[in-house]
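Work Package 3 (structural annotation) set out to generate three-dimensional models for the target panel prioritized at the project kickoff. During this period the team completed the workflow that converts sequence records into discrete structure tokens, so that structures can be stored uniformly alongside our sequence database. As a representative example, we reproduce one entry of 131 residues exactly as it appears in the project archive.
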Amino acid sequence: MKEESRLNTAYPYKMEKTESALSFADIKSLYSKKDYRGAIKAGEDLLPQTDNPQLLSEAHLLLAKCYKGLGDLKSCISCCNSAIEHNSKWREAFLYRSACFQALHTAYLETDGDTPENIEVDRASADIIVD
């Protein structure tokens, strides 16, 4: 009962107590334990089971948070876009997407636009030059 009341106050929409809502609570629990891969798997299993736009939006945003926790900013932005698509009036998805774009831009500036493979090659050649 305590988990259910916390679930309803954490998000701006009331969710009915259904199998999907219980699965969403499980995903939130995995996310809070920083088991991002487990939460992503459970979230992706939940998405086809529901047609509730609020639940879909919240699930996509939670997936975005998991992807950001794993450092996959492009997938994070994609999930934010899906959350916005299902509920365009929910500003948290817009704010989270904005934070991801800023993080992606910062990472781009720090690497001068190089890909991870090119960065490793550059580092290896820099070690040769220094030695």
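The chain has seven helices and no strands.
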